[in-house]
């Protein structure tokens, strides 16, 4: 009976290809023209793509909006004689206690730095800790001496001569932290690209089990990545967009992840068409017609979600929007033009050893997802409730998410600057080693300094440069850098001094970052939901189906954050979370997670049944989800906590969405809702009603309609 049914299907579908055998050959100039166009584009893009790394900036002050007090302080300091400063602290330490000779060495080094570097303020002084084992030398180097990276490297080279007989010397302070951060960012791009390509290649080989087919999506995504980097570089030059290493890294991951997803969907449908269509050109046209709306809407939801980030005040968050959107659009263009052109020209032999021959039946759809669909059909209520309970339990982990990530805790492997700051905190518990910069209008400088000294939490106030109507005051807080005590002191200073002064510095920048990120979240998250909902409603011609998909991905997002809360501290040892983690993970999980719902529901409308749609798309969605999760998990190998956290949450969320939500919860909800899923649109593709009791009747209904 199954054989007769298969033959009937083939006899019904075979006549759809009625062209003469040579008809498709007249169109072969089109694939060649497409490939030629892409070759020309890549040739133009390569010079610009290589410049993107040099156009990125990772300074904390560049992330903030111009209206932030700390940004205004940094800009004014840059305009003063000598420009801004690189603030470092030399930390001399001996376990058995510092000797008189050790103190002399530190004093000589301070004098040498004063002679050879363009310092700001008074000559460096040595400050002995109460434990007698630690001594610090604060140094402020003018910007005219060079950027922080080179200044810190020069100082470290000089102080290396002071280490002898158990005396250790480390370079800490905000300038050293910034230099170590810059060095870390500099090592990311090459590592990320290599690991991403390797991961995608392995997964494609495992998916296709072909010696050649896996290479085509990989090459096409590589071409898309080059184009995206070139366009992103031009954006930075033409629009003044602030692009940092995180936005560049996310763009690379998006190109490979989204591009591979689109390739998997297209190739799977193309393989199906090759069984029933004689000529590869027509088979590809059929595949593009059937997958095009879903792929285009999928890309549209990601682009829409990322474009909303342009409304964020944080420059670093805003940059992820257009760069990520550029990456997705380049991936979409390459996967719907370049990849089809290459596949058509190379023909069926690219699928060897599993060549889809014309007139042969496709692979039987009675695998794992057929069994899953049958289970969901029989136990739809139990499936839905159980899945929601699991996700709800994981969501409780959000209660375990720790506080804000401090700059010294931002590295997965602690550099010298972080170790130096920890030693200073232990040796000087009542004094900060990171100054707060207060800029007062010069006529009010004396009164502002007096009020600052009387502010609770302030240990010391020194007067520095005066220029352009401003006077620089260095305020030392009693609390340690980025501690609650120091944060309270900065807020009290801003309240007490009001409009007469601006309060900035590294710690103030972190406070402004938290405040700005919090405001951005209240704007970005609702707008992302609204934009994605509108696109889904247009594609699915329904108001209920988009609500089901969006509700599912929101629950997945909270569950993924909860899982992060369960592992970040206890397993990974992270002390704090990046403030942008909830916002960025939400944007990516909603925009990317909806993709698989689009693929499933689009096929459900075409098949006019749940079980055949799940059976047909389940394997493709699973492969695409694994590839996307793997590409984002590449971020976890990078040496920055913020990258690891973002990569983990998105990867886990994609896997939850792929194997739990799309495989079980959405089909169960669709079966329970029945025709109401497509309300208020006309029911052109009815979902089986609740009376459908098993998988076999569903398949018989599907075969009859075929």
Query: Main sheet, how many strands, which sense, barrel?
Result: 4 strands, antiparallel
Q: In terms of structural class, how would the helical and strand content be classed?
A: alpha+beta
Based on CA atoms alone, the radius of gyration comes out at: 30 Å
Number of strands: 8
How much helical structure, as a percent, in the residues? 55-70%
Low-pLDDT stretches: 1-24, 684-706
Strand order of the largest sheet: 2-3-1-4
Tell me the number of helical segments per DSSP (H or I, 4 or more residues long).
24
Give the overall form.
Answer: elongated
* Straight-line N-to-C gap: 16 Å
Q: What is the arithmetic mean of pLDDT?
A: 82
Estimated share of beta-strand residues: 5-15%
Key phrases:
four-stranded antiparallel beta sheet, elongated, 8 strands, 706 residues
Give a written overview of the molecule.
- This protein is an alpha+beta fold.
- It has helices spanning 2-13, 29-49, 52-55, 60-63, 69-79, 100-116, 148-159, 174-186, 188-208, 215-239, 245-276, 280-307, 315-346, 368-378, 380-395, 416-427, 445-453, 484-497, 506-540, 544-567, 581-607, 610-633, 641-673, 695-705, and strands at residues 85-93, 127-128, 134-142, 168-172, 436-441, 458-467, 470-477, 501-504.
- It contains 24 helices and eight strands.
- It has a four-stranded antiparallel β-sheet.
- A hairpin with a 5-residue loop joins strand 2 and strand 3.
- Helix 9 (188-208) runs antiparallel to helix 10 (215-239) and helix 11 packs antiparallel against helix 12 (280-307).
- The radius of gyration is 30 Å and the shape is elongated.
- It starts with a helix and ends with a helix.
- Mean pLDDT is 82; it is low at 1-24 and 684-706.
